[in-house]
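Supplementary notes for students who missed Thursday's class. We covered one full example, reproduced here. Read the sequence, then the structure, then the short commentary at the end.
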Amino acid sequence: MSENVPPQQSQSQEPEQDHDHDHESLNSPLLSREHRSTNSTSQVAIVGVNLCSIESLDYEIAENDFFKQDWRTRGKIQIFQYIFMKWLLCFLIGGFVSLVGFCNNLAVENIAGVKFVVTSNMMLAGRYEMAFLVFFLSNLGLTLFAAIITAFIAPAAAGSGIPEVKAYLNGVDAPGIISLRTCIVKIMGSVSAVSSSLLVGKAGPMVHTGACIASLLGQGGSRKYGLTWKWLRFFKNDRDRRDLVTCGAAAGIAAAFRAPVGGVLFALEEMASCLPIVLNCGCGCACNVAVVAWTSGLLWRAFFTTAVVAIILRALIDVCLSGKCGLFGKGGLIMFDVYSANISYHIADVPPVLLLGAVGGILGSLYNFLLDKVLRVYSIINVKSITYKIFIACAISIFTSCLLFGLPWLASCQPCPLDTAEACPTIGRSGNYKKFQCPPGHYNDLASLIFNTNDDAIRNLFSRNTDSEFQHSTMLIFFVTCFILSIVSSGVVAPAGLFVPVIVTGASYGRFVGMILGSHTNLNHGFYAVLGAASFLGGSMRMTVSLCVIILELTNNLLLLPMIMMVLLVSKTVADAFNGNIYDLIMKAKGFPYLEAHTEPYMRQLTVADVVSGPLQLCHGIEKVGNIVHILKTTSHHGFPVIDEPPHSESPVLYGLILRAHLITLLKKRAFLRTPVRIGAEAFNHFSADEFAKKGLGNVDRIEDINLTDEEMEMFLDLHPFTNASPYTVVETMSLAKASTLFRVIGLRHLLVIPKTSNRTPVVGILTRHDFMAEHVLDLHPILVNSKWKRLRFQLPPFLQIF
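Structure (token representation):
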């Protein structure tokens, strides 16, 4: 992050502090405070498949005099516009995301359907070599298209997208995460990758797409395209955009699974960084009361957005059921209504289900471990060149095509059941009984799962009254195949979600367990497939409430609730003893400086003064233009403390914090003074609120683009009207753990550290996101690496570390 800067000329007036180094003394600090060093933690991360520099988002509103005056001049009409636009944008987000979700499924079902129909027709005619060639080349072509547009146009669109959106909502910004280019490539690449028979999902890309759509709608227009509607300027800040992106992420899950309530809970449980609480740090500083990200208003708007998605999708699907959408509708949208039987279970069924959940947790943690290692290997290869990225994608496509076409030949043909309501064997697009190479009246059970889309495979696994449809060897082969393919396919340079592959793998595991139990259980194999999917999801993604509701909305059966709850709790608890959830592991592997909900135990033994890095750059309330230009050109800070000194105040005092973007705006307007006097209310006549609003993507002003004369460099700027006079501050003796919680919960970019005594410089330093990273803290204080506090952190299972 550019706030943590390389060494530079210092204007800091920090006093030296001497401490007793006798660690045995009860009166000495835990750690000796040496000279402050520069924060050397990584300021880059892997976004998609490219290494990019990263910044922080600032969810704090800069409440300067100009901001207050702007809000005071707004009447009831402007307030109504602000509220109305929030709801209108939520409606538009829901509408656009539902259309994208519908078109995605429409395209996948038709593209993949045509591929399977053509291949099946050739196999019916006995042209097996030509059938394989068509299947192989179509998969390779689709994968190559997805890889090329992702690698060359929008590398940030690669992967699931959920880790990137989760990091964004945590306050991490990176180039291209939610741009228009990324959005378009995410949609097209996801359709192509899923249609190519790669074991990847479209739920993660839909979440990323929803976040992109929400961000683009909330940018306040574009002067480049003449879209500068005055109403939209209200949302030109990170806080309102964050709320819209949250609604977009919820809409993405709702569109992917037709699970509106599950979408809201997913955004609340997995994507949001904090819950709606009122924070009182008790330190007597400016952070006494702070209401954080998830408020009732945001929850209401997110629910409204997902409701819009559900209604529009329902209407569009009803149209397709009449046969107007080609092959779409024959396979359906995801897995809705796949299991609607009346469920009856007894106490004797509980132990096997508990065991299934425990083993599912172990398998889920193993899946996370292997996927983390594979993604790290891919990241090493991807940094070499674009050619390597595309080669890996093509190699995995070839490997997948060979497996999917070759494995069904290992399965024996089964005679068609006499009591089935479905045509057997299935000829064409979808169904439970694929003929493949079998003679008339027989079907290939492995082909019914492998030679199909992921959605149809899940539907076949979840189906009821099909206990005798699959063989034990078939289910075991399918489980191992899905487990391997879902891991190796996730790191390709293409949009690749994890939700559906995990569901497919878990469903095959659950159905295999049900087949082993056989007559020893009252539950049918389809129910075990649902429980297996839940256990694998819980073991990999570590969510509970949202996953439970999503599965219920997928299966349309509330009677599954007790068993699903039990499986999710067991699998998550077991998996937490081994590693973290998959999205956190991916964020860590990519290098995102994500602030966890819990703090490290050793942070409670440190104060903020132990980690604050320097040197510090200060601005005066009335500053010479030349000094401001020098500071901006020689540093990459994004926030500067503003102090007043005599004669403008009786003693040096911290006035507030001014942002880099605001300083550049002041220089561009050239509202300079010839004498160092306060400008007062005249400032409001020279500027408009739009000029200080957050710029859209790619529209950041740079100091290098401003040319000033020597005469202008000798003039002055009054920074008081544009300085945030009430920034969040903490005293230097505050514990690092408490400061980290404050920083994360409120969503800050800068946290000022002030001295405990009043006879010193008014500001000690600035804390930014990287100052709370373990790499920085342990680099400053290596004694903590082997301390009992750090060992304690890693000896506890993750599910106990929250305490």
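Commentary. DSSP finds 27 helices and 16 strands in the chain. Residues 21 and 32 are 6 Å apart (CA to CA). If anything here is unclear, bring it to office hours.
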